[in-house]
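Record 1 of the preview.
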Amino acid sequence: MAVNKVQTKNIVFGDNAIPFIGGPCVIESRDHCFGMAEQITEVVSKLNVPFIFKSSFDKANRTSISSYRGNGIEDGLKILEEIKNNFNIPVTTDIHLPEHANEVCDVVDIIQIPAFLCRQTDLLIAAAKTGKVINIKKGQFLSPYKVGNIIKKVQEAGNDNILITERGNTFGFDSLVTDLRSIPIMRQFGFPVIFDATHSAQIPGNHEKTTSGNREYIPSQTFAAVSSGADGIFMEVHDDVENALSDASTQWPISKLEKTLKSILAFRETYLKYG
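->
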């Protein structure tokens, strides 16, 4: 089923290519962010994969008050803007308050709405009014059939540049499961669907002060999502996953990225031919 094409710069979602949204979960430092952007850009350039760099200036939804959150909106946006200009790539980050929308819109190309905030009307409207592409992560608590109401909020604010991201659903108390029917179901609303490969592998609340996860399931879930029609892949990537300051158990090692992307492209080609 065809969906509306959504474009930022020269990158098109909903076409034959499968764009990659990736980067470290949170901005740990300027040097680390630049290093990750350089390494990821090298890999995607080799494979001709459209790329949007992602990192968060603030992880407001942390398990513990002591968890690292980021370097803040002012410094974070400066780093993202430098990366955007230095590598000539689009960038994205997430926002948590309506007032963040106008602060980030001069820098980012895509505004990301966190899963837990996907129904916050004021946040959605503020983001929509910037005119930017809005990537809304479907809440872990939400049926894929219900995203139509979220989409309508953004459209009513005058914005049709919408992406929806699948990142799993809560199962019991401490697990997430990915029902891949969600991808074709949500595509029926007419907008591209992205698969969040890393957060779908989380085990929320499994540790006392952090979220854990099963990194080993990221490839199989991702390949299945591509085979189910996903229009793009979101994947947090790190060069030292065990010591990452956020979501250490589910970030994907940069050393494995090229091999994983090659497989994603192969599954995408098969889907376009036979899906």
